[in-house]
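2024-03-11 09:14:02 INFO receiving multi-entity request
2024-03-11 09:14:02 INFO entity count = two
2024-03-11 09:14:03 INFO echoing inputs for audit
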Amino acid sequence: NAGVTQTPKFRILKIGQSMTLQCTQDMNHNYMYWYRQDPGMGLKLIYYSVGAGITDKGEVPNGYNVSRSTTEDFPLRLELAAPSQTSVYFCASRPSAAGELFFGEGSRLTVL
Amino acid sequence: QKEVEQDPGPLSVPEGAIVSLNCTYSNSAFQYFMWYRQYSRKGPELLMYTYSSGNKEDGRFTAQVDKSSKYISLFIRDSQPSDSATYLCAMSVDNNNDMRFGAGTRLTVKP
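2024-03-11 09:21:47 INFO inference complete, emitting structure
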């Protein structure tokens, strides 16, 4: 039972580079989320999706893009990486708006 | 002022101690309150979930919500070394996608 799987676990980017953080879940959950976690700041919602083909902005969407072509996958795209995007990124899913959030193990990104 | 305030600690206690973790908040519209536990280098996992004011108990864990004071607490009885983790409070107005998290309190329980 894999749950929520994120790749890569670690990545170092140079300023201006682009990359995609992958997230896949095998629980058939409709709701998926991307958060970033910074020291002393708590988790901040970047983007979320309530089903395939539907995405919406969260609290801190600038500099990111998402897509949701299937129920299982919810990749997060970083265009023109900036040092302010250095963070730990967590993908999460849940079966409904009222359900428990299940988190992946995180992707640690450093932009130099 | 942050919407959700949580003392980051670190908090260190001996095994068997009672631990009290707290969060305060500014948005009186919050109705759903959660506590997540996060082990080092792992994702958070739901520990307790409460709606509106009152207490909820689950084994060694008790969650309290005082909406009049905008204050929530998590108590851990008979703390164990395996309880060593960061504890995050979270809350939302509706049971929807806009959940706000505290910064987390790092707890160490020493054998």
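2024-03-11 09:21:48 INFO post-check: Chain A has one domain: 4-111.
2024-03-11 09:21:48 INFO post-check: Residues 4-111 of chain A form a domain with the Immunoglobulin-like fold (CATH 2.60.40.10).
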